[in-house]
Amino acid sequence: MIAPTQVILDKTETHVIDGIEVEFYMAPDSEAPAEMHMFFPGLKPDEVAEALHLPAELEREWSCRGYYGALKHKAKAIYQRYLSWYDANPVHLDPLPGAASARKMIAYMGGAEAILAKAREDYARGEFRWSPLGPAR
């Protein structure tokens, strides 16, 4: 995180924070000049959400808890609000609908049984974010 004592004076400034380049822009029509937008050039919303962490002292604050979603959810929502949903990948401009995309993906991965076997392996290793499955029944 940027130190609270660091002053940003220009309408736009770039800083490197924890090895990540962050661009700050003065918020239009803001109530205070200190209100700024920031974004992470080169990072997509999911990557920003993974990289963003509150400092330990803020994580302990009741008012900073994840009440209506985690910090990751909020980071992605803010990214979409100010920078749009488009991630500069032309394939994402006209994606296949969910069912058609799923059929194609299953075929590319060698069929449903191959996918289920890999998903069970991931689940057994505790990789729950990747594997949507529970234990084999």
Automatic annotation (TrEMBL):
GO molecular function: linear primary-alkylsulfatase activity; protein dimerization activity
Pfam families: Alkyl_sulf_dimr
Source superkingdom: Bacteria
EC number(s) stated in the UniProt entry for this protein: 3.1.6.-
InterPro entries on file: Alkyl/aryl-sulf_dimr_sf, Alkyl_sulf_dimr, Bact_Alkyl/Aryl-Sulfatase, RibonucZ/Hydroxyglut_hydro
Keywords: Hydrolase
GO biological process: dodecyl sulfate metabolic process
Domain Alkyl sulfatase dimerisation residue range list: 45-131
PANTHER family from the UniProt entry: ALKYL/ARYL-SULFATASE, ALKYL_ARYL-SULFATASE BDS1
UniProt protein name: Alkyl/aryl-sulfatase YjcS
Originating organism: Pseudoprimorskyibacter insulae
